[in-house]
Amino acid sequence: MSIRDKVNSAFEIEVKSTMHFIELIQAGKTPDRMMINTHPQRWDDNYLWWLKELVAQNLKNKIKQLLNTIRSK
């Protein structure tokens, strides 16, 4: 849930996995220019650190949803 990073674009592409993204690129189903926003802090082989990041991100997203709801009233 992004509050500030909004982009108006003429396309909407659902990417299901890294391999799916590669297949979309190879098939020419992506735009000529793209910005890829990654979150390397979420890439961790340590299960406990990964779980901590998952829980924290889900909590932040719920708070952002609540803020958006309050602001839209």
Provide the low-confidence segments as ranges. none
Distance between the termini: 18 Å
Secondary-structure element string: HH
Care to count the β-strands?
0
Helix content: 40-55%
| Overall pLDDT score | 85
- Tell the overall outline: flat
Q: Main sheet?
A: none
The secondary structure category is: mainly alpha
Q: Taking Cα atoms only, what radius of gyration do you get, to the nearest Å?
A: 16 Å
Number of domains: 1
Number of helices: 2
Residue share in β-strands: under 5%
Could you characterize what this model shows?
With 73 residues, this protein is mainly α. The protein has one domain (18-71). Helices cover 47% and strands 0% of the residues. The protein is built from two helices and no strands. The relative contact order is 0.13. The model has no long low-confidence stretch (mean pLDDT 85).
Features:
73 residues; mainly alpha
Question: How are the SSEs placed, and which strands pair?
Answer:
Blueprint: H1 18-26, H2 47-71
Produce a short descriptive summary.
The chain has 73 residues and is an all-alpha fold.
